[in-house]
Amino acid sequence: MSTETATGEACALPSPTDGAACALPGAAPAPGRTWIGPSQQERFALLRRATSIAIVGASNNPARASFFVATYLLSSTAYDVYLVNPRESEILGQPVYASLADLPVRPDIVDVFRRHDDLPGVAQEAVEAGASTLWLQLGSWNEEAAALAESSGLAVVMDRCIKIEHARFHGGLHLAGFDTGVISSRRQLLAR
């Protein structure tokens, strides 16, 4: 989970597993974390420059975050979206590729929905595929993967949802139900 600070910067909410919490601007990273990610403006620039996004770990299960993100990117953005999962052949009517190496293009952003231990391997695959950015979803934090990608010239974003970031930067959070645009403290009247 994440929230925004007064400066508009998103930060992690306290988690029972890692104890991470929002930090004040200029403060050190959360305990156990040394990597510092791109600023809000830098993330906006990454999304703006990109024309293609590969979703590694795409799922055909509507209950999975990767399904929701793929649905949003395919229906609400101009990105060329490529889905990667070796166990699927089609998701949302789109062809699915077994690996990043099988893609017909060099993806600008590799958006990753994989287990923590798989992240360094996916980072290496992103490097080999010629990606520009490695993007790890909410809850994904792996400094080994970040170091590997950055040492090869990739930008890295960790612990952020690309759908939420895109919608926030483009004024569309309400379209997906994260922000209804309605603020009310009134109770609903029950029909009698």
UniProtKB/TrEMBL annotation:
Matching Pfam families: CoA_binding_2 (PF13380)
UniProt cross-references to Gene3D superfamilies, sorted A to Z: NAD(P)-binding Rossmann-like Domain (3.40.50.720)
Q: Which SUPFAM superfamilies match?
A: NAD(P)-binding Rossmann-fold domains
Every CoA-binding domain range? 46-140
Provide the transmembrane region boundaries: none
Q: Write down the InterPro entries for this protein, in alphabetical order.
A: CoA-bd (IPR003781), NAD(P)-bd_dom_sf (IPR036291)
Instruction: List the PANTHER family hit by this protein, alphabetically.
Output: COA-BINDING DOMAIN-CONTAINING PROTEIN, CYTOPLASMIC PROTEIN-RELATED
Q: What is this protein called?
A: CoA-binding protein
